[in-house]
Amino acid sequence: METIITLLVGILVSVATYLLLSKNLIRVVLGTAILSHAVHLLLMTMGGLKIGSVPILGDQVETYTDALPQALILTAIVISFAVTAFFLVLVYRTYQSTGTDNLYELKGSKDE
Amino acid sequence: MNNILVFPMVLPIIAGVLLLFFRSNPNIQRWGSILTMIVVFLISLWILQQVMIQGILRLDFGEWLPPFGITFVADAFAMLLVTASSLVSILCLLYAAFAKDEKREHFFLYPFLLLLVAGVNGSFLTGDLFNLFVCFEVMLLASYVLMTLGGEKKQLTEGIKYILINILSSWLFLLGMAYLYGTLGTLNMAHLSVRIAEAGQPPLLTTISILFLVVFSLKAGLVLYFWLPGSYGALPTAVSALFAALLTKVGVYALFRFFTLLFYHEPSVTHTMIGWMAIATMVGGSLGAIAYKDIRKIAAYNVVIAIGFILVGLASFNYEAIQGSIYYLIHDILLKGMLFLLIGTVIYVSGKTRLDQASGLIANYPLFGWMFLIMLLSLGGIPPFSGFAGKLLIGQGAIGAQEYVMVATAFLSSLFVLYSLLRIFLNMFWGETSIRLKDQMHLSKGTLAPLLILAVLTTGLGLGMGILAPYVSEAANVLMNPELYIEKALNHK
């Protein structure tokens, strides 16, 4: 199971890399979103995927699920949600004021 | 008792949220935020004293004992940086309060400045890796907003690059953390250190440490500084001063923590790498500093050079060099704030951003001109000012470690710092006055006050290095002997 998820993470990262390298700003934003999903999955996998146990350790319990990765991912998801939201607004605002969403046309200013 | 440790982070957050409700009253915003930072500064001074008396302090949140809960650990190194950063933020806020940029003030400039400081202080204090990530993000989100606040075209386009590079480095941070948790099963820094020492840092862990090196190099601008000059050039004065003083320093702090507390078993790999990166940074920064005529660019490349210089101390990895780095780090937090405030003020009074477009400013503003001279001498490391002790100790340490290439590059880079800033001084302050006295912009005493305080501080710290000495040697002692940190950060009372 871990191997399959790790492979999935690899696929997600390659998709995200492809999107990040494109000129279109919206694609770049989508790329960052997918990139963060990939690393959240990886965090989960690294904590170990166990099926059917509870995250409580007691005397009678033989196996338990490590709850920490879940907590970490929850926090990381909230953060990446906030960053993506901000980034989307910024991209829209940039589009409004420069009239373009092509990264090549947003290169440094002319007076340099 | 140790609950006071949380105040340097929580007070700015509370004040920042409260100030959101006083949008229509800029005076409450201005003086409220300054007052908060003064309180934070006094509290951190007090904690620093307590650390010197009682040793390293720790706060376990919710009584969860380490390594299970999140902890704040205050050692002398962290507290020195918290104190210095609180001090410089007071001065930057003071400058902002007198600069009266009402358009930005109306859109919550001060709350976001406070949140930025909260993230910075939290990053210094935390003893938990994931909490470090969260504090980084608090700081970064506030910096994204400050970066783009005002909505000028240049800010927006530079903001996109800045955010993108930081999203990428946060991603690498999470990646490194996932691997570290997968291999060691803990995220408490002291506990990580114990487990790495038990495992003897095998190649796998060294590889992970290099991943973290990349992450923090991106934040600190070590070799990977290409995002820095453009984005710092687009900011209003007070914000750019705070960015230059604090943001890269958090990356430097994290590098010091990681490579003295966690990954110190293979210095021939990691610390050699840091050394070469520091050399590359100083060379690149020096070239940048003399290549441009835009004074904001010159100032930004000076930030880069200083990062390389501080990390020479980490790369040499002995007691003197680490001590020197701590001196220089404190000095640099104050002086980079001053440099950017001065550069911003030059642009404000002359209306020009290139050094060949104005001249003779010292005739119009004598006090201001002399402060610029003090700042540039101090950054160059000339004796009576605060840059000297740090440079001397880093040099001694690096010679002790027989890193002669690093020593040579470090001191050559100081010459480049002096040259690049002297060029600004000679071109813009000396020569024929280009602004007639009756046309000159009025520089209020309030704007000059923070600059004057910084000039006094750098002179005072230079002459009275003895005051800082016990704190710095205690900080270096803990950094060089990780077991001191581990013992205090993990023990169950």
Automatic annotation (TrEMBL), chain A:
Record field: transmembrane: 6-21, 28-51, 71-92
Keyword set, alphabetical order: Cell membrane, Membrane, Transmembrane, Transmembrane helix
Pfam assignment, any one: Oxidored_q2
Cell compartments where the protein resides: Cell membrane
Membrane topology classification: Multi-pass membrane protein
This protein's record includes keyword ATP-binding: no
InterPro entries: CPA3_antiporter_subunitC, NUOK/Mnh_C1-like
Domain of life: Bacteria
One term under GO cellular component: plasma membrane
Family: Belongs to the CPA3 antiporters (TC 2.A.63) subunit C family.
NCBIfam families, A to Z: PRK08600.1, PRK12660.1
UniProt-recorded name of the protein: Na(+)/H(+) antiporter subunit C
Organism for this UniProt entry: Domibacillus iocasae
Automatic annotation (TrEMBL), chain B:
UniProt KW keywords: Antiport, Cell membrane, Membrane, Transmembrane, Transmembrane helix, Transport
Membrane topology term: Multi-pass membrane protein
Cell compartment(s), UniProt: Cell membrane; Membrane
GO MF entry, a single one: antiporter activity
GO cellular component labels: plasma membrane
Transmembrane segments: 6-22, 34-57, 77-98, 107-124, 130-150, 162-184, 204-227, 239-261, 273-292, 299-319, 325-349, 361-384, 404-426, 447-472
Residues covered by the NADH:quinone oxidoreductase/Mrp antiporter transmembrane domain: 127-416
Single biological process term from Gene Ontology: ATP synthesis coupled electron transport
Main subcellular location of this protein, as a coarse class: membrane
Entry-linked Pfam families: Proton_antipo_M
PANTHER family linked to this entry: NA(+)_H(+) ANTIPORTER SUBUNIT D1 (PTHR42703:SF1), NADH DEHYDROGENASE (PTHR42703)
Family statement drawn from the similarity comment of this UniProt entry: Belongs to the CPA3 antiporters (TC 2.A.63) subunit D family.
Protein name, UniProt field: Na+/H+ antiporter subunit D
Organism: Domibacillus iocasae
Origin organism lineage: Bacteria, Bacillati, Bacillota, Bacilli, Bacillales
